Amino acid sequence: MSEPPTADPQTVDVRDDAEANRYEARVGGQLAGTAQYIRTPGLIAFVHTEVDPAYEGHGVGGALVRHSLDEAREQGAAVLAVCPFYAGWISRHPAYRDLLYSEQSRAADGGTR
Questions:
Q1: Which domain CATH number covers 50?
Q2: Number of C-beta neighbours around residue 5 at 10 A
Q3: pLDDT tens figures, 45-77
């Protein structure tokens, strides 16, 4: 069995496969990882990230997250980090925290009459 191509963040090609509702990371043309999402107008929820064990620790997961969050920012979409990998990555990269979805009630506090 041959070794997978070496991965570093510069050689990871990340693309959105909208039909499959996932971002795909490829290294040397080989599928190295995916990030599944659910998209609604103005919101993208990242629900599961998976990196092939042969590529773990080589920046594939980080490339998936960074690319998908950069696209969310470009599209003006908020992000719901259901996936623990996304949540952890965002907590370590404060420049992306502004993308996180936070539910805010539009109703004024004060009860009903």
A1: 3.40.630.30
A2: 15
A3: 999 999 999 999 999 999 999 999 999 999 999
